[in-house]
Amino acid sequence: MSHPVPTTPAELASFIDHTLLKPEATDADVVALVEEGARLGVFSVCVSPTFVPLAVARAAGRLKVATVCGFPSGKHVSSVKAAEAARSIADGADEVDMVIDVGAAKAADFEAVEADIAAVRTAVPGDRLLKVIIESSALDDDEIVAVCRAAEAAGADYVKTSTGFHPTGGATVHTVTLMADTVNGRLGVKASGGIRTLADALAAIEAGATRLGMSGAASVLAAMAGDTPTAPTSDY
To answer: EC (predicted)?
Structure first.
C-alpha cells in the first residue's frame, strides 16, 4: 500500500521519528536532539526510557516524544515489558515502540507473540500509540506476515521493521511493502534501521511506510532542500 511521496522537506519531516538510542547518550545529547528535532519540524523524537522526562520537558509540546520497550532484544518477560511501558507513559511518553520476542516468532508461536504485545497494550492507553518492532531482517516472509497479524490482533497501532541494533540489518523496500500490504492501512508502518539517505527515505515511503525512524534526519532533510548534508552519526 504505497503513499504519496513527500516533495518538500517539511512534508518529509512530518514522517520522521528523530532517534537517539545509543547506550552512551547523555542528557546533553538528548537536549540537542530535541532542539534539532524542533528546528527540523520532525514528528517526534525517540529516546531511551530513562530520558523520557527530560525529552518531554524540553519538547514542551513542540513535538511528540517516543520511547522503546523491551529494547533491543525483546527477550523480556511480558509483565516487565508492560511495567516499563507503563512507567514511560507515566513519565509523559506519547508513543512506545516495543520489541517482540523474535525467538517466539521463529518458533512459530504466534499466540505467544500476540499475548506479549497484548500485555504491553494494556499499559499503553488508547490515546497513546503502540508500535511493535518485529525485527524483520531476522524473519522470513511468512513469519513477517504472521507477526503483523498478531500485532493487529493484539491492538497495536503500528508495526515497525527493526531496532537498528540487529546484526542482520534493518528496513528493506521488500519488507516495508510486505508489511504495508499485510496491514493494508489498518495499522501504520514504521521503517527503521539503515535509512541513511534521501533515496532510502523516499523509497520506504513509496513502499508504504507511514513513519521513518532515523538518526540522520538533518542530513536527509538537507539533501531534500538541496543543501550539502552532513553524515549521520549512526543508524539509530
So the answer is: 4.1.2.4
pLDDT for res 228? 57
- Residue 97: active-site member: yes
Residue 233 lies inside a defined structural domain of this protein = no
CATH of residue 122: 3.20.20.70
Q: Minimal CA–CA distance to 67: which of 41, 93, 90? A: 93
DSSP 8-state class, residue 138: G
Q: Which residues of 30-45 are buried (b: 16+ CB within 10 A; e: fewer)?
A: beebbeebbebbbbbb
- Residue 235 located in a structural domain: no
Averaged pLDDT for residues 16-29: 97
Active site residue 142: no
- Reported as a single tens digit per residue, the pLDDT across 72-114 is 999 999 999 999 999 999 999 999 999 999 999 999 999 999 9
Active-site hit among 157, 190, 200, 235? 190
Task: Establish whether 160 is a catalytic residue.
Answer: yes
